[in-house]
Write a structure and sequence with these properties.
Elements (H helix, E strand, L loop, with lengths): L1 E4 L6 H9 L5 E5 L10 H13 L3 E5 L3 H9 L4 E2 L2 H23 L9 H10 L28 H17 L7 H22 L7 H23 L2 E8 L1 E5 L3 E6 L11 E3 L1 E14 L2 E7 L2 E8 L6 E3 L4 E4 L4 E4 L3 E3 L10 E9 L13 E3 L2 H4 L3 E4 L8 E7 L2 H13 L1 H10 L9 E9 L3 E2 L3 H4 L6 E15 L2 H14 L4 E3 L5 E4 L3 E3 L2 E14 L3 H8 L4 H8 L3 E8 L13 E5 L7
Parallel strand pairs: 1-2, 2-3, 3-4, 5-28, 7-8
Antiparallel strand pairs: 5-27, 6-26, 7-26, 9-22, 10-19, 11-16, 11-18, 12-15, 13-14, 13-17, 14-16, 20-22, 21-22, 23-26, 24-26, 25-26
């Protein structure tokens, strides 16, 4: 006799492989609570079939009533202790020996014919014994008072199942195979009774045991189906769109942090260097004039006295161009004897500057009366020269101020051009030219340095610093996402693509940039699983589906599949909430 102890995580394939290694014909299979083998009646049926094919007596042992009931429903004798299982297997062995003797005629009891043996094989559960001495299956003969298969506790439990099975009888179409077994047992028992009346000594106890066990199997099967259903529910919640009312967001250069509650974020002031320059004409005029100079000759006909010519004596032309002597002179007395006048040359200069002082020779002929009355005349032997008027350009204050004003007006355009250059604003920021300003410009040359300077033109440049507000608009998405999270209900969760967040270009007003933002996200509500289980336990599949459909799509699987009502025990209901698909 061999004993196999299964581990909780052993699969049915492991159990079958270990069963095939048994060679002595008897096996005690110990199934622990929570074993994977004990999760399905099919596993015990596979063990029973393998034992039958190998003519191997197998008794299962488990201290879990549910495991024992499941094994019995699969046709496998089951006990709560190893000792009870070993005793039953020993009784099987002894009964096999006795019945083998009866088949061979070596016993004092009446010999069993082939027809009787065939009837016994048909009535006997297929895995409960196999004769090792021959190829003929035989039925064990239990003791009159005690079943060789069970402990008292197992006998009481199996008797209760058998009684329930007997009450059901042939009215339940789900136990057609059991009724056939019962009919065979009853027929066999009637045949044996008739033969006993005829003097044959065929024991009836084995047939009674077989009938009892058949009823027990039917009762256990019915109890397993009725008392131990399980339900697996998969719920996929329905999705909905959470959409916020449009809300304002303000970019403020005086804000240092992002505040999703008030909808504010920092706006950065970007400094932009500006430089403008140009060449301007000088509109001022500076006039420079020179006086003509020359020489006049005084000629005296006075033979009596010399005539003094003081410096600064005025002489003139007949058309009024005046000259003044530059030095004092004396005109000598004329020589009467030789009729030679006295003469003297005196340098003169025009009284007024300019080209009018340039006169031809012999045109300066007028002398003051004080001189001409003394018989002295004047004349210029050569033209006077050097009289001129020169005009030159000069930079005036008005010229300088006009140049500054012109360059200042160009700063706005220079700022716009600078902002059009993508390199003027850091990457990731959006500049708003409507907010652009610039500070007071500084000239490269001060006014004092240029005003009064004689020059036809002058160059002037202005330097200034422009400022423009720029915003990291990606932060608006963060604000909208935070508001969406705050708007989620207690059991509401987001799913699928990222939130849909839209906003138009910002509007500049009073040094701030304002946006209007729309935000939405796909969500689903994860229901409370415990509450849902309490709502549907004990309900029919139709009722449970109707209740759960309000939360989404539902799939209910009940084992056994012919049961149309969910278990009333919440522990036998497995509810799984799967997130809905992220796609449309």
């Amino acid at each position: 006799m061999s004993t196999i102890y299964l581990e909780p995580d052993d699969e049915i394939t492991t159990a079958i492989a270990r069963l095939r290694a048994v060679s002595d014909g008897e096996l005690v299979l110990v199934v622990p609570p929570g074993s994977r083998v004990a999760t399905s009646r099919i596993n015990f049926k596979l063990i029973a079939r393998e034992a039958n094919e190998r003519k191997l007596n197998v008794a299962a042992v488990s201290d879990d009533p549910a495991v024992r009931a499941l094994a019995v429903s699969a046709g496998l004798p089951t006990y709560d202790t190893i000792g009870a299982a070993e005793t039953a297997l020993a009784n099987f062995r002894e009964q096999d020996r006795k019945l083998a003797e009866r088949l061979s005629g070596g016993s004092d009891e009446a010999r069993v014919t082939e027809e009787e043996a065939e009837a016994l094989r048909a009535a006997r559960p297929p895995l409960w014994s196999a004769a090792r001495s021959s190829d003929t299956n035989v039925m064990p003969t239990p003791a009159p008072d005690t079943s060789p298969f069970e402990s008292p506790a197992d006998s009481m439990r199996n008797a209760e199942f058998a009684a329930g099975r007997a009450r059901m009888g042939a009215t339940d179409s789900r136990f057609g195979d059991t009724r056939a077994m019962d009919a065979s047992l009853l027929t066999d028992m009637a045949t044996r009774a008739e033969r006993r009346r005829r003097g044959r000594r065929i024991p009836i106890a084995p047939l009674l045991v077989v009938a009892l066990l058949a009823l027990l199997i039917g009762g256990v099967a019915y109890g397993a189906y009725v008392l131990l259903p399980t339900a697996t529910i998969t719920l996929t919640p329905q999705t909905s769109t959470l959409r916020l009312d449009p809300f304002p967001v303000t970019a403020d250069p005086n804000s240092a942090v992002v505040d999703p509650v008030t909808g504010t974020l920092p706006a950065q002031s970007i400094a932009v260097p500006l430089h403008v320059t140009d060449t301007f004409d000088a509109t001022g005029t500076q006039v420079s004039e020179t006086k003509a100079t020359g020489t006049v000759k005084f000629r005296s006909e006075n033979t009596v006295n010399p005539v003094n010519i003081p410096a600064g004596t005025f002489v003139a032309t007949e058309d009024g161009v005046e000259f003044v002597t530059l030095e004092a002179a004396v005109v000598p007395t004329a020589n009467f004897a030789t009729s030679t006048p006295g003469t003297v040359n005196v340098a003169v200069r025009a009284v007024r500057a300019g080209p009018n002082g340039n006169v031809a020779e012999h045109t300066i002929v007028l002398a003051p009366r004080s001189i001409s009355s003394q018989l002295v005349s004047v004349s210029n032997p050569a033209p006077t020269t050097g009289g001129a008027r020169n005009e030159t350009s000069v930079i005036t204050k008005a010229d300088y101020d006009a140049a500054v004003a012109t360059l200042t007006s160009r700063l706005d355009n220079a700022l716009a051009v600078a902002l059009a250059d993508p390199n003027s604003v850091p990457r990731g920021l959006t500049a708003y030219p409507a907010s652009a300003t610039h500070g007071a410009p500084t000239a490269d040359q001060p006014r004092e340095q240029l005003v009064g300077l004689v020059a036809p033109s002058f160059d002037l440049a202005l330097d200034a610093t422009g400022h423009v507000l720029a915003v990291n608009e990606a932060v608006i998405d963060d604000i909208a996402a935070a508001r969406l999270d705050a708007a989620l209900g207690p059991a509401q969760q987001t799913i699928g693509p990222p939130p849909v967040i839209t906003f138009g270009p910002g509007e500049v007003a009073d040094g701030l940039i304002g946006y209007e933002v729309d935000a939405s996200v796909l969500t689903y509500t994860a229901p409370d699983q415990g509450s849902l289980v309490n709502q549907v336990r004990g309900k029919t599949i139709t009722e449970a589906t109707s209740i759960l459909s309000a939360y989404g799509s539902v799939d209910i699987v009940i084992w056994p599949d012919f049961i149309d009502r969910l278990p009333d025990q919440a522990t036998r209901i497995s509810l799984t909430v799967t997130p809905p698909p992220a796609g449309p």
